[in-house]
Amino acid sequence: MALVHAVITLALIEFFVFSILVGRARVQYKIEAPAITGHPIFERYHRVHYNTMEQLVLLIPSMLIFASYVSESIAAVLGVVFIISRVVYLRGYVADPKKRGAGFGLSTLPVMILLAGGLIGAVRQALA
Question: CA 26, CA 35: separation in Å to the nearest integer?
Fold first, then answer.
């Protein structure tokens, strides 16, 4: 499970970096806390950060479940795909929210695979 734990840690580091980007945008565009609106670019960084948090809630447990019942190495690879795709999502969304689709799709696909595979693996184990 060390490989899966390492990938989860990388995903959390990425999330932390996204929070730094939000803070930097907050200063750059003079958005005083607790406001979360005021400049479109700041709002885009904020949405990327928040949307990534929403995805992490699904990614982390699904990676652990999938790794336990199906494959640790495949779970880790899918996690890396997620991490890379969130950078694609960030770049697209900040440039133009209409360009977020590829990053969203690429990051949603591994989560769906992990969820489905984890469920199938757990049910098979339970029925065995």
Answer: 9
